[in-house]
Sequence to fold (145 residues):
Amino acid sequence: MQYSEKVMDHFMNPRNVGEIEDASGVGTVGNAKCGDIMKVYLKIEDNVVKDAKFKTFGCGAAVATSSMATELIIGKTIEEALKITNKSVMEALDGLPPVKVHCSCLAEEALQSALWDYAQKNNIKIEGLEPPKDSDHHHHIPNEE
Ligand code: FES
Fold:
């Protein structure tokens, strides 16, 4: 399988690994098919994502996309953060092999799930943010890819 240099770089040296203790929002998502799990922590102040960290128990592409997704979201307003899709994460990584595209969907879902958690905790409505498909947003396990 052919991985881009950026994917390899983010897999070997992932950015923003860890936890944020007083996170504003936390999102955990799992891939029902491969069993990989991704947890994203966001620190949000004045509508801006000040910090992001992640823990991913998953394949190399899942680690690389989590790493890139946290890099992309730091410094963004919530509105801008909502526009980060698995496509934008993949583009930032110079692409992924087709069989690994579903791993980048996990990263998108983890970000959205953490934003949703933030909105719930603060009782705010974020325009354009869909609730996680699973009612239990702390453990959002999607059924499809
Ligand atoms: S194979 Fe499970 S997220 Fe990549």
Remarks:
- The chain has five helices and three strands.
